[in-house]
Amino acid sequence: MKIINIDKKLLEACPNIQLGCISYSVNVEKANEELWNEINKQILKITKNMTMEDLYKQKNIEDSRNLYKSIGKDPHRYRVSSEALIRRIIQGKGLYKINNVVDANNLISIISKLSVGSYDIDKLGDNLVFRIGKIGESYKGIGKDIVNIENLPVFSDEFGPYGSPTSDSEKAMITNNTKNVLTVLIAFSDNSGLEQYMNEATKILENYVGATNISTYISKGEQE
Length: 224
Prior knowledge:
This protein has about 220 residues and is an alpha+beta fold. The protein is built from 7 helices and 10 strands.
């Protein structure tokens, strides 16, 4: 299993940061009806019960915004993916249908209010780290132009960055050829409910995505 270490500078900015990592094998295909029934239940729940004001009071959203401020990134301009997804729902825009892995990823994110990223393990190197983006660093985002990742928390291997809580790059994106996936739940505090959400995420991946060979761990930065 590939382990993600947390860089010391990021730990200094956010001492309680934790990464809930789920590694598994999968066949990527169109999302099934059962998965989208569950997604639509969550969309309806958010639409009925949450306003924009309520969204910003959600602890896991608030923690992410505070972390971005502390490392010099405007959380209004650079939103974590969970906030962006829920904003779309509140605005009545719904969610895109991509594939079973990405759609399950988004379901986990809107349930947990945590930023969640899923990556093709076979496209990554061996030395994985979660760090702060360097001066001038950028990459091409999925479905986007160049994303400025300077001062953002970013995932990187020995060849360069491949993802962030805001927008992932094309480097390790999930495609129809993906066979092995690493899904990461990003928690910016130690009382985010991470373990509970990892258990829920594992059930979602088993039940709706057909994930096999599942293994999990939580990175708290001890390995740096």
